[in-house]
Specification:
Radius of gyration: 18 Å
Helix content: 40-55%
CATH class: Alpha Beta
CATH architecture: 3-Layer(aba) Sandwich
Strand order of the largest sheet: 3-2-1-4-5-6-7
Mean pLDDT: 91
Distance between the termini: 53 Å
Number of helices: 9
Strand content: 5-15%
Order of helices and strands: EHEHEHEHEHHEHHHE
Largest sheet: 7 strands, parallel
Number of strands: 7
Structural class: alpha/beta
Oligomer: single chain
């Protein structure tokens, strides 16, 4: 007897790894993916916060799992990916959301020291390289998707955030290369540039001048919500609905930085 085909209304089950998912935008993406019934691995350095987000993913209808990971450390990244494969048996999507601790500290370019530049490169660029190469074979087998969290700062620069802006611009360059190189392997690679509430943005908004400048240029008049606004857009790019979308940067910023 031939088994019934799967229902077309049921979303395919996916296993997703999200870096820096212990809070903020990463948390919002994780919960949104959980709502699709997916298995969501939260790769971060802080287990208590990661476990709390994993529980939220469970409550949303998915399966939340925490795995310890420092994205700037090659051994740590490889161990995290190996854990995902060993316990879930597959990897369909990768989200690089981890960000440098310097990202919300405003300072002029003349005040930026080498430690800050090195940390931005380590997290944003080295981390993307390490995660991508470690996950490549599993993503190839799954016909998977990579989504990188970049920023409008990478398009236009940002006053008092020079190292962050440079690193985010470089991320987009890597994504365009990977989209072209990995397309023949069936892997899609895209960026999103969110403008969202987050602990980092809260710290940046402690300066009322910064807050007024950011909010004053958003046509929709508010920051995005990590779960309701950013998460579904990232989930779309990870899903089969976006199967012909690659090499793009999707601005999720309320119209703050149009690039068309």
């Amino acid at each position: 007897m031939t088994p019934d085909p799967p229902s077309k209304t049921d979303p395919p089950s996916k296993t997703i790894l999200i870096s820096g998912a212990s809070g903020g935008v990463g948390r919002g993406i994780a919960v949104a993916c959980g709502e699709a019934g997916w298995t969501v691995w939260l790769a971060a350095r802080r287990r208590p916060e990661g476990d709390a987000v994993a529980a939220e993913v469970d409550r949303a209808g998915g399966t939340g799992r925490f795995v310890a990971c420092d994205v700037a450390d090659a051994d740590s990244v490889q161990a995290a990916v190996d854990t995902v494969i060993e316990e879930s048996g597959r990897l369909d999507g990768l989200v690089h959301n981890a960000t440098s601790g310097y990202s919300s500290i405003p300072r002029s370019i003349g005040d930026v020291d080498l430690d800050e530049i090195e940390d931005q490169v380590a997290v944003n660029l080295r981390g993307l390289y390490l995660l991508g190469t470690a996950a490549f074979e599993q993503l190839r087998l799954a016909g998977g998707s990579v989504v990188v969290l970049t920023s409008e700062a990478g398009f236009e620069g940002k006053p008092l955030l020079p190292a962050y802006a440079v690193a985010k611009a470089a991320q987009r360059g890597i994504v365009r290369v990977l989209a072209r190189e990995w397309g023949s392997s069936g892997i899609r690679v895209n960026c999103v540039a969110p403008l969202s509430s987050s602990p980092a943005m809260d710290r940046y908004f402690e300066d009322p001048v910064n807050k007024a400048r950011v909010l004053g240029r958003i046509p929709l008049g508010r920051l995005g919500d990590p779960h309701a606004d950013i998460g579904p857009a990232v989930r779309f790019l990870l899903s089969d609905d976006a199967r012909f979308v690659t090499g793009q940067t999707v601005m999720i910023d309320g119209g703050s930085c149009p690039i068309t």
